[in-house]
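seq:
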Amino acid sequence: MKSLRHLRSPFMAVISLSFIVALASCSKKEVVSDEPLMNPSDTSGGVAGESAVVGSGNAGEAGTASSELETVYFAFDSFSLSADTKNQLKNNIDWLKSNSSAKVQVEGHCDEKGTVEYNMALGDRRANAVKNFLVKSGIARDRIDTISYGKERPVDSGHDESAWSKNRRAVFILLSR
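struct:
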């Protein structure tokens, strides 16, 4: 099999593995926005955020969204935290500090625009931006897990800006109390 002979070479195996890893890591494009983030369901001009409602079961059970922790929203193609979003996250930080044994997972989500790969990477950056802010604010790193769902779990399945703005978010899931 002449066409597969090149894969037997250790050098080509390393090159092939490097290519696969590069594809998996996706683009590292960072988009920074100082635009204040608004709660997409708030027409009064309020700050981004609403109680997390993703998950099943009663709020506060392990593995479900907590009604005490707020979802935060992002601008299009951005993972930066605005001053308003940071202020909103302080409520989550206060709750985590007063519930010192609680462990959470931050889910990064995106709108339907862009490729699956790009949105998985962007969702990961969003979740990690939130995690890093929490850690800098005094929450132990080992109490926060992150995961990206990219555009795979929209909260609103519409195909307009109203739906997209609701899907660009980081959701807090309570893993344990």
